[in-house]
Amino acid sequence: MKTLVLGLGNPILSDDSVGIKAAQEIGKRLNNPQITVAETSAAGLSLLDSIAGYDKAIIIDAVQTKNGKAGQIYRMGPEDFSYTKRFSSPHQINLITALEVGKMLGLVMPQKITIFAVEAKNVTNFGEQCTPKVEQAIPKVVEMVLQELNAENP
């Protein structure tokens, strides 16, 4: 089974880099030819280039929820998101809608997608460092992803 671990984010927007930093650490610790570890700042339809052709995808990203606490980690699937297929610009497409568009285009999309989202405090200020609580969450989310991979690829 071809698996992708994909860290999303912007490396110069503080906590938005959490997915990229986690993916970098996972990449240092894995040595399995069936698992690709990558990172991207892409969004919307551009994500299709990264995820098409894999059987399974684990995505790591920052998230901001209404009542979340910085550093909190959520394990989710596509079904946990609401989305719309209506959009006026390809830049407005979220991950879940991009996956649906990929399927409609006949692309081979992952059959199983797991999303690890880390509650971010600051995704607007320029900076290469995460805020302290988000920085502390990186080793935890790395371990969660590695456990998920080990359970499926013993």
In terms of topology, how is this protein built?
Layout: E1 3-8, H1 18-29, E2 35-40, H2 47-51, E3 56-63, E4 73-76, H3 95-104, E5 112-119, H4 132-152
Classified in CATH, the superfamily is HybD-like
Number of helices: 4
What is the C-level CATH assignment? Alpha Beta
- Tally the beta strands: 5
Order of strands across the main sheet: 2-1-3-5-4
State the end-to-end CA separation.
Answer: 12 Å
Percent range of helical residues? 25-40%
Looking at the chains present, what oligomeric state does this protein adopt? Answer: single chain
Low-confidence stretches: none
Outline the biggest β-sheet: 5 strands, mixed
Return Rg in Å.
15 Å
User: From the helix content, strand content and strand pairing, which structural class follows?
Assistant: alpha/beta
The whole-number mean of residue pLDDT values reads 88
Structure in words:
It is built from 4 helices and 5 strands, in the order βαβαββαβα. The protein has 154 residues and is an alpha/beta fold. The chain has a single domain (3-152), classed as HybD-like (Rossmann fold, 3-Layer(aba) Sandwich). Strands 2-1-3-5-4 form a 5-stranded mixed β-sheet. α1 links the parallel β1 (3-8) and β2 (35-40). The longest helix is centred in the C-terminal third of the chain and has 21 residues, at 132-152. It is globular, with a radius of gyration of 15 Å.
